[in-house]
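Protocol step 4 of 5: obtain the predicted structure for the target chain.
Materials: sequence only (see below). No template structures provided, no constraints applied. The aim of this step is simply to have a reference model before the mutagenesis design in step 5. Sequence pasted as it appears in the construct record:
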Amino acid sequence: MLRRMCRLLGFDADAFVNADRKTILSQGDTVPTDATAGYAVGCIFQHRDGGEGTAIYINEGTEDSCDFNTIASLTAAQELGLNQILGTAAVITNATHVIEVASSDVATTGTVRSAEIVHTVGVADATTIREALYVSVASEYMTGDWTNAIVGRIDYGTAGNANGGMAAAVCGEMNMMATAQGGGTYYCFDAELNCPTGHTNADNAALPVAFLKYGLWGNATAMGSFEDGGYLWHSDGFTAGAGNILSANSQTMRVNIEGDDRYEVLSQIENGLGLGVIGTPMALTNATHAVSIFTNDVAETGTVRAAEITHTVGVTDLSTIREALYVNIDSAYTTGDWTNAIVGRINYTAPGKADGGMAAAICGEMSMPGAAQTGGAYYCIDAELECPASFTCAANAALPVAFMKFGVWGDATAVDSFEAGGYLFHIDGIADTANGLFDATDVDDPDFTHALKINIGGTDYFIGLSTNVAFNA
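Step 4 output (structure tokens):
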């Protein structure tokens, strides 16, 4: 009869038999008096006349001398076990833990773990979500200073150290399959942010929302030491090479954004962009670029620039050399057909054109001081040629050396058209001024109608010009 009743109630009949007629579940208006005999250890008593914190009791005494205590007075581990039986949630107050493991590690070899979860998959299933450990914080309330679903912490105190080993508060480690990757995506860390309906980001630097946070705290001197010698992150085990995650010369690292490969630039200088440095240059092979910028300009108004450098001088200093952009080619080898430190090129393809505007492959423009010139020399273009010791000019028209070259090339008919209607150079905005830069004069034999003023070695000279191509009166 007992077994039949237990089976109907879903109880373990053998457990009741083994209870040796001791009570394992009871209820009533009055909690059993301490030292009463007859209650099994762990007997649950439902207090019908109780309230919050006094509705459920458990016997922590013996079968001969009971000691019923409320769940609220249990340890966290006891409460967790009872909650598993009753299917209820543990109530956590300040400075309490549902699970607590305190271990004393005196091992000198091997791998030591305070807790271990080994989740072995025993079936192939493409639809199941698998998680060896799932930790969730659910809150309908405002949380405090720190709320973390998982915290990994190592406290070295004053004497501890990693002693040449590696220490990480949180470690994400994956052992890839010993065969070709057939499918799937793999990450050591996956950071996912759910933005539900109704959420609006504050868009405020004081209220950041991000996938990752780096924070430094502690003693000011110790923090300064870390900032002087530490790193934001450390990569190890990579081999620099063409097509690798870490590029040749270790100048970029490949990342993937929305399915497209992109490359993070790794500067070799502090507080600037250093792609190779003196003594450790970036090696360039055919058809490669240290810096590459491609833009698609669809603007119809304003000023549009693919790149801009603005160098603002903030101190008066007569000895400093200032250069907003410095481009230099060093070569101990014979160079090829064209070697140019800077190339400015505009490529008009039909039907592109300047359409009444101005186009210049290179523009040198200067805004003069808003006061009388008291010193200094000013040039829109400065062409300087250094002749080091032992250099000797070939003095050969076939091997010209000059401050400037003018060259025209392309389709023969188009070149003829330019030669017939073009100019060597064009001067605009300069008025006729006696003994000035441009001066209308009257010189015969040959006939010069105008002159341009130049300066050579501190002496003014004048280049004769004529409106008559034949140079005759």
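Step 4 remarks: The mean pLDDT is 88. The CA atoms of residues 50 and 275 lie 75 Å apart.
Proceed to step 5.
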